[in-house]
């Protein structure tokens, strides 16, 4: 019987640039500042990214530039959920509900990063340094840097479509 072997060396990975952004402002405010400083038009998507079976949801803003055939996505890296602790059957003077805050990360390898800007382009994207300098020029941004996507273990979380 003949043995058939499939070779998957010709599979291309999607080409995109990933920029990590450290800042303490809200997602909508950062999207506004990026729109202003980069000349783009990020808009909040109607549905958040939902992971871990409804335990964590991450806000996402997106803009499709049809002229340059580029998709820009701003996604939050941090999700904080408040969960109620199980109540004891003890009687107490004050009937309070204790809560615990759980923090989830979209990309666990970069827990300190607040947001990721993903620039998805089928071609080689050559404006990365220019975009990074413009983001660093925003006063509310503490720092921003490029992320090597090939080094990420959880890069599958960056597939938004």
TrEMBL record:
Organism: Hwangdonia lutea
Name of this protein: IPExxxVDY family protein
NCBIfam families: IPExxxVDY
């Amino acid at each position: 019987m003949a043995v058939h072997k499939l070779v998957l060396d010709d599979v291309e990975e999607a080409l995109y640039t990933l920029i990590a952004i450290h800042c303490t402002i809200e997602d909508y405010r950062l999207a506004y500042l990026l729109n202003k400083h980069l000349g783009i038009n990020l808009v909040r998507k109607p549905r958040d990214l939902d992971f871990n079976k409804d335990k964590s949801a991450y806000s996402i803003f997106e803009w499709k530039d049809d002229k340059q055939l580029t998709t820009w996505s701003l996604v939050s890296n941090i999700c904080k959920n408040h969960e109620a602790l199980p109540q004891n059957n003890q009687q107490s003077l004050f009937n309070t509900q204790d809560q615990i805050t759980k923090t989830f990360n979209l990309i666990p390898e970069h827990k300190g990063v607040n947001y990721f800007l993903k620039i998805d382009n089928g071609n080689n994207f050559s404006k990365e340094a220019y975009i990074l300098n413009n983001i660093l020029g925003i006063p509310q941004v503490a720092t921003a840097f490029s992320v090597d996507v090939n080094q990420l273990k959880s890069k599958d979380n960056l597939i938004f479509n």
